[in-house]
Structure formats: structure tokens, C-alpha cells
Amino acid sequence: MRPIIEFCVSNLGHGTEALKNKLEQNLDYDVIEYTCLGNCSQCRFEPFAMVNGEVVAADSPEELEAAIDSKIKELEAWDNLEID
């Protein structure tokens, strides 16, 4: 299953735009930008994205990238368990 990674346009000021652009280059991901993801209080304070509907947040865009990678690996592990 291809991970869906969603970004809020209002959060791009936290440095997540470069990360969004990088992830868009990976054809294994569906990367979507929305005008609002409904997490306004969080959006103002830290970089975040949603991976398959789950909020992933961090203190910096670099840490967010690592957290997104970790979440994707976690989801892939669950998918593999379901298949076995």
C-alpha cells in the first residue's frame, strides 16, 4: 500500500516545503498538499504532516523526515503481519 503523506500549506513556513518537495520525487508515495488539515493549534507551533491519516510531528523538518520514515516503516511492518 502506498503511503499517503499530507501537508498543510499553512505549515510550510516551518520549513516543511523542502521536505514536501523531496518526498514528491519518491514515486512510492502519494504526497498531497491541503490548504488546511484541521490541526491549526499544532500547525502554528511545529512541523507536522499526516501519514495515512495519523499526525506525525517533530521539532525540525529534518526530524520530521525521520519521523515520517519511521511511521512508514511501522505501517509497512503492520501490512506484512496482515499478509502472513
Q: What can you tell me about this protein's structure?
A:
This protein is α+β, with helices and mostly antiparallel strands and 84 residues long. It has one domain. The chain is built from 3 helices and 4 strands. Strands 2-1-3-4 form a 4-stranded mixed beta sheet, with helices on one face. Strand 1, helix 1 and strand 2 (30-34) form a beta-alpha-beta unit. The longest helix has 23 residues, at 61-83. This is YuzB family protein. It holds the Pfam family DUF1450.
Task: Write the topology of this structure.
Layout: E1 4-8, H1 16-24, E2 30-34, H2 40-43, E3 48-51, E4 54-57, H3 61-83
Parallel strand pairs: 1-2
Antiparallel strand pairs: 1-3, 3-4
Structural class: alpha+beta
Widest sheet, order of strands:
2-1-3-4
The total count of strands amounts to 4
Radius of gyration: 13 Å
Q: What is the averaged pLDDT score? A: 92
